[in-house]
Amino acid sequence: MEEITRIDTVGQYCAASNNETYHPLVSLVDLSKAPKRQNSRTVYGFYTIFLKDIKCGDLKYGCNYYDYEEGTLVFVAPGQVLGVENNGEWYQPHGTALLFHPDFIRGTSLGRNIRDYNFFSYEVFEALHLSDSERKIITDCFSMIRYELERGIDKHSKTLIISHLEVFLNYCVRFYERQFITRESAHKGLLERFETLLEDYYVSDKPQTIGLPSVSHCAAELNLSANYFGDLIKKETGKTAQEYIQLKVMDVAKEKIFDTDKSVSEIAYELGYKYPQHFTRSFKSMIGFTPNEYRKLN
After folding, report:
1. How confident is the model at residue 162 (pLDDT cuts 50, 70, 90)?
2. Long-range contacts (CB closer than 8 Å, 24 or more residues apart) made by 164-170
3. Quick one: 171 and 209 in the same domain?
4. One domain, residues 37 and 177
5. 48-62, 90-104, 127-141: range with highest mean pLDDT
6. What's this model's pTM, rounded to 2 decimal places?
7. Residues 160, 202: one domain?
8. 285 shares a domain with 245
9. Which of 17, 93, 11 is nearest to 46 (CA)?
10. What are 44-62's pLDDT values in tens digits?
11. What CATH number corresponds to the domain at position 281?
12. Residue of 44, 91, 52, 80 lying closest to 68 (CA atoms)
């Protein structure tokens, strides 16, 4: 198996890329200064965002490849493994890497909200493709961060850098929402396929062997990461993927309740619930009646 390189600190990454370390916890790295590389797999101990200038190999994330082009942002969270494969040939990286360590944002508004930026958990093939105008905004954000880093650290530095990071990430949220629309053809029929997947789930033995359908299971079946899938469904329906699944489960439950030969407990197990009381509680919460009350009413 190919060896995985671990880089735990921002300083280590800067040194390996022949860049000066202006701050031990946050940096902007000019990748063109880095030495030439071959195939590699690396796990980082910090948040990393790559803005690629030219194509220089295929990114590999898990078992998937993404053939990235100019003007692409790739987001990597701490602990994720990112690989670059280039048929064993040496290549010169180009572009910019924005790095910030979890310790830098700890106790700040960004630290409290970092989990809201779902794209750090997207697969590489779900990267953000920038238009020319969007790229200009991103490079302007980078320039503001670079200015703060190069002018030296003072009592205002952290506050200003955190603010610029939040502006940058919020623009990325906007640009991803644009991408969900402009790349609609790539996701055409997703909702229909999701619906079919849930219908097939309940005519199989999966509820008994797996349990209730989960967002991660459905996303994997549709070849998407759970967060990207969830964001697409929210954009399409206004509901989270979990809410959509729960509504489907309740629809199936209503049909089964009309079969008076089955007890509520039997129906609960058929739906994938481990415990009947959990089914009763969920049904009452979403429908307004217990399963038995609903059966009597209808």
Report:
1. very high
2. 165/26, 165/100, 165/105, 165/110, 166/109, 166/110, 167/141, 168/98, 168/138, 168/141, 168/142, 169/110, 169/117
3. no
4. yes
5. 127-141
6. 0.71
7. no
8. yes
9. 11
10. 999 999 998 644 444 444 4
11. 1.10.10.60
12. 52
Q: What is the per-residue pLDDT for 29? A: 95
Closest among 162, 187, 175, 55 to 109, alpha carbons compared: 162
Enclosing domain of residue 86: 5-182
Same domain, 240 and 259: yes
113 shares a domain with 11:
yes
Domain boundary among 153, 182, 211: 182
- Which tokens go with 195? 């619906």
The two three-digit tokens of residue 227, written as one number: 């967060």
Kindly tell me the sign of the dihedral angle through the C-alpha atoms of 279, 251, 285, 244. positive
